Amino acid sequence: MKRPSHRQILIAVAALAAAAFCFVAWSIAPTLSDAPLPIPTRVLAADGSLLYQVGPEDEETSAPIAFSDMPISLVNAVVSAEDKRFFEHHGVDWLALVRALKDDIAAGEIVSGGSTIEQQYLKNTFFTDAPRTLPEKARELVAAQWWAATHSKNDTLERYLNTVYLGNNLFGVQAAAQEYFHKDTRDLSISESALLAGIIGAPSRYEPVSHGAAASDRQRFVLDRMAKNGYIKTEDVEGYASTRLSVFAPRHEISAPHFVFRVLELLEPAIPDIAIGGYEVRTTLDPDLQHVAENSVGLQLTKLMEEHVTDAAVVAVDPESGDVLAYVGSVGYWNEGASGAVNMADAERQPGSALKPFMYQTAIMNKLVTPGTVIADIPSTFEGEPLGTGGSNLYVPENYNDRFHGPVSVRDALGSSLNIPAVKILDQLGLNTFFGALEKFGITFDEAPDYYGLGIVLGGGEVTLEEATHAYAVLAANNQSTPLRFITEVRDASGAVIYQDDPHLERIFDAHEQTRAEQATALIGDILSDKTARALSFGESSLMEIGKPAAAKTGTTRDFKDNWAFGYTPDFALGVWVGNADNSPMYGVSGASGAVPIWHDIMAYRYRFDDPQIEMMPDDIVTRDVCVTSGMLATEICPKTRTEKFISGTEPTLGDTWYRWEMNSKTGQREVVLVLPPEYDAWVQNGN
Asked: Are residues 536 and 388 in the same domain?
């Protein structure tokens, strides 16, 4: 092979040098001019109306401050959290870059960027619309080294800290200090400095107004880093971390604030600079339905003020697309007295009886019961109290109304939300089977089933309103699931679509289970839509009726800390929570009196002009006239009968034997008497 000539080598070297020069010039060119005017990120409702505009263009949310006025504690906290070798490197921390590369390779995705403060500043100021590609990363590295060579560290920190995003449309540490703490930056304590520094890594997750616990954890992380870097003493970390801080919610023009901040939180991992500016986010929110939901929440809580009810949340969903149509996280984001900035739609709370439909659906699927099966609603004791209670080994459930109803059908037990029948069926079904079913519907718990015990069906675990409403949406979609969808698409400054979320329904049951699951789900919907099934607890006339067919279920915790209302049609699912963000109990307010009125308002508005879709009963559902008391086939002497629905093959085949003709020894006349099975003897002897 012929060796290249000296001339050819010189030409190649010159070409490489020219290419390198051009690349360097291209990399640093944006930094030679003034920072471009920011283009705000606009968050839009489904109809295109503006919900929120986020970006540093608002003078009220961006207040510059000189580096000399920044406390050393803030500088140390930011450097510790974001770039611990800031004062040692020259724009690029090669050690951090190599470590980040190793982490990314191990994870199979980008989990760490290793960016220095110079890189972050340049990215957020001059390269806001740059794609996340290797050439752009190389360009950023070159620009960062150029910047470090032409600007002092103090100058870089001043610019960075005056423009960095700190959540809630706050840019720069001065604006954040004034809004969050009602003080100037120069007056920040070490604890406050660490809290602010912690926000930078993920503003939507660590801002202290809506995510106090996460912000505190992040603050502790920053304090530990400061101690490790020698800025504070290790023995002082606990004191700084435990210092109670007063944090105030900034006020901005914004519609559906909890929804908007949830959207930004969801987008931040994929688009880290989403809140810096330059994007248009189209969401799923229906502004008219949102307005109705917010108004109903406000009116209901005004009525319940004397019962110590201060908060409520709403999630409304299209079951087919997963679109979140309305989303109320609290009675008012700016209501500090009720912890309004805390998003109760995404907070874990005890669901009361709200999970019963999923237990009954599983029991019907497994041929354990039918809607007509009769359960003894009488005093009952079970072995295995939930491990989490730390009590004895015996579990004695009680009904919400402290009454026992004797023989009740599954239809009446679920419709009227009776506790003892539910626990009895779960005891036969098995905890593992029930937890497996809940997982299919998207509800999971941190501990093993035995930790919660049979009380899980009465609200012994914790769920969020989001996940519970999604589970009901899966029922509404006939056991088909799609994740909740908040965002339809995101466009960058050029108008190009860079993010799109297309709904996709997936069946939650295997093919061999699907038919049985559809049959069971149809029967659950029929029960929850049956006003006569609710009569034992709610009467035949209640706000759970909207004049059109709709499934409804309430939930109330025994201590009145939480109450719920869920319901659905084939094309709409709705969940409502009512309670107090501080977990204090309400004064005897149940789901029927607390959450249901809000549920009724929204559901009635949704169907003010049209009717819900009609869900046809699947094949192999048969009807039989049954004796309600026994669940057996109706006879001429049974005083109360109903036409009940069954999956074919599970219907009763024998006539009722509980009502009999017997001779009255006193009158000598034959009369109809009810002879209950022996398990009811003690209940009858107690005068029932």
From this structure: yes
